[in-house]
Amino acid sequence: MPKYKCLFLFSLFVFCFINLALAQVKDTLLKPIDTIKTTPIRVVRIDSPKKTIDTAKAKYVNPGKVAARKAVFKSLIIPGWGQLYNNQLLNERLNAKGEKTGHFWQKTYTLSKVGIIYAGFTLLTISYIDSRNNYKIFLKEAQIRALNKLQTDPAKKQLVNPDLVRYGDTNVTDAQAIYKRNSQIVIFSYFAVYAVNVVDAYVAARLNYFNIDDSLSMKITPSLMSNPNSMYGSNATPALKVSLRF
């Protein structure tokens, strides 16, 4: 009996499996696979012309700005080099106009700034050396006097500077502080002269490309301006007319 029971269960399992397989095959036959993928169609407007970019158009370059950058760069490397460069620009501009000579004072002014710059550096250097020497003298004197106050044995006391005997201890300390401050001011002045050198080179280079020829003129003439709100009954008001010619 168990043998028939196992056979019955096996037959039932096979029957269910066959029915499931047939149903799957039927479903695949009813629903065919669509292998063609739909792609969106892009609408192209034929009547819209494309904008063409003119690559041959040259970009505007400001010559004054370029010259100013070069002048600043040269002045940063060597003080006064930017002024010499500006003098070269001046000569090129005059030669382009056909003016071989002339503008003597303008050239002299441009070149004299180089001498002023180095004269300033020279005076500052002399002042710095003098301040440092005096600072060391008064510093040494202050140290000697401070050590002598601590010595109880007169034989071990050091000799003071005979040129500074007339100065008291407070005066020696004050002089030392003054000369030290002067040295610091001179160092700051070095940077100030250096900065002025760079700024002057920049401004002069930009001015070389400004239009300052003889065609520029300004005329001021008296005129009358209408004034409908005048309380005196007159519509004309005195005025000045300014005319600029380029």
Descriptive overview:
This protein is mainly alpha-helical. The chain has a domain at about 65-210. About 60% of the residues lie in helices and about 10% in strands. It contains five helices and two strands. The protein has helices at about 1-30, 65-75, 80-95, 105-150, 170-205, and strands at about 215-225, 235-245. Strands 1-2 form a two-stranded antiparallel sheet. Helix 2 packs antiparallel against helix 5 and helix 4 (about 105-150) runs antiparallel to helix 5 (about 170-205). It starts with a helix and ends with a strand.
Largest sheet: 2 strands, antiparallel
What characteristic shape results from the CA principal axes? Answer: flat
Number of helices: 5
- Termini separation comes to 127 Å
Low-confidence segments, ≥5 residues, pLDDT <50?
Answer: 25-31
With strands numbered from the N-terminus, the spatial order across the biggest sheet is 1-2
Q: Please estimate the helix content.
A: 55-70%
Would you tell me the overall average pLDDT? 75
Order of helices and strands: HHHHHEE
Category by helix and strand content: mainly alpha
Instruction: Indicate the radius of gyration in whole angstroms.
Output: 48 Å
Strand content: 5-15%
Count of DSSP strands: 2
